[in-house]
Specification:
The chain is 40% helix and 21% strand. The protein is of the alpha/beta class and 385 residues long.
Length: 385
């Protein structure tokens, strides 16, 4: 099998926990604010794991990621049960990275104490902002006080491997507030930071409010300026900018997400969860009841797409250019030849000339200037019919 930049035979498991306390105005991920089918959902996910035990073939699992939704709504016992279900289906490495996404208001002392008894060893905390009015504008479930208290509480509980999320580029976020958010997060010595520009997805409450004139649209210039400030500040503080939205101190790169970007296989469990095996992608039904009922009948409810050589190349272009590891021209040219085309290096040259792409041997990476136009550059390099 032709592999695009695969660096490991070890795979990942992703659990999509489809429950939230309330809907953030900007979020278009699949979730329900009702926990009515919580027990049935847990049983269904275990069932799906068993039915798909052969999906990753003989590969070991080195990462398990609980995303959503809001996985921190589960108890430590429920999380342990899902981890145990993985180990019955797949060999899991002794140093596996096991990440739990969490909202600040969920991580109380009791939950942290019980999680210490599980293999969970990494937290991804959705801070987003330390300003109360901004959190209310986003319709987040937690407040500014929760945001400030949670990181120290997690650290005091003995967890070192922590990443925290921030959002920038929305109307309420002045440059002063953005600087304060970054400095506040840095004061806690968090070893990994993820920061995302606010995007407006068509089916969200935020999109509806903008269409009705109740909210101002996002400003691309504001977003670019705040992204540049973020890059400069975190680089000065010793963080490696290893993916467009992700910054880490040495030894704290997110292994699970890094494997996504490097093309490593993964299995997604839960409604709307995606899976990838190197040949195809598949995604589960985006409906809690339909997902549960199918599995109660011992069936899987999903769609599948077989990837063409062109699909594989375009995905490689998109993901590799976003990372510090870059795009290997030798790999890209080989895959381009398989599509019946040639001339990839020539397509890249204009971005080298403008200083947006840097070549180091056969590897192309985005410069600071290029990172502001990552999606545009990738799209210009895509192979299309």
């Amino acid at each position: 099998m032709f592999k695009l930049n695969f660096v490991s035979d070890m795979a990942g498991i992703y659990f999509h926990i489809p429950f939230c306390k309330q809907a953030c105005h900007y979020c278009d991920f699949h979730f329900s604010t009702s926990l009515k089918y919580r027990e049935e959902m847990m049983a269904a996910m275990k069932c799906e794991l068993n039915l798909r035990a052969a999906y990753l073939k003989d590969e070991s699992v080195e990462t398990i990621y609980f995303g959503g939704g809001t996985p921190s709504l589960l108890t430590a016992t429920e999380i342990q049960q899902l981890i145990d279900a993985v180990t019955t289906c797949y060999p899991v490495t002794v140093d596996a990275e096991i990440t739990l996404e969490a909202n600040p208001d969920d991580l109380d002392a009791h939950l942290l104490l019980t999680l210490r008894k599980t293999p969970v060893n990494r937290f991804s905390i959705g801070i987003q902002s330390f300003f109360e009015e901004d959190l209310r504008w986003m319709n987040r479930a937690h407040g500014a006080e929760d945001a400030e208290a949670v990181i120290k509480r997690v650290q005091d509980a003995g967890f070192e491997n922590i990443t925290a999320d921030l959002i920038y580029g929305y109307p309420l976020l002045t440059d002063y507030k953005w600087q304060r958010n970054i400095e506040k997060l840095l004061s806690f010595a968090v070893p990994h930071i993820s920061a995302y520009s606010m995007t407006v997805e068509s089916q969200t409450a935020l999109a509806a409010m903008i269409r009705k004139g109740k909210q101002r649209p996002m400003d691309d210039r504001q977003s670019a300026a705040q992204f540049e400030y973020l890059m400069d500040t975190l680089q000065d503080r010793g963080y490696q900018h290893y993916e467009i939205s992700n910054f880490a101190k040495p030894g704290f790169l997110a292994r699970h997400n890094s494997n996504y970007w490097k093309g490593v296989a993964y299995l997604g469990i839960g409604p709307s969860a995606h899976s990838y095996d190197g040949h195809s992608r598949q995604w589960n039904v985006r409906n809690n009841i339909r997902y549960v009922r199918a599995l109660q009948q011992g069936e899987l409810a999903y769609e599948r797409e077989q990837l063409t050589d062109r699909d594989k190349l375009n995905e490689y272009i998109m993901t590799s250019l976003r990372t510090v590891w870059g795009l290997d021209l030798a790999v890209a040219e080989q895959q381009l030849y398989r599509t019946g085309r040639n001339g990839f290096i020539e397509a890249l040259q204009p971005f080298v000339d403008t200083g947006e792409v840097m070549l180091n041997g056969t590897v192309a990476t985005l410069t600071r200037k290029g990172k502001l136009k990552a999606d545009h550059i990738a799209a210009e390099l895509f192979v299309v019919d």
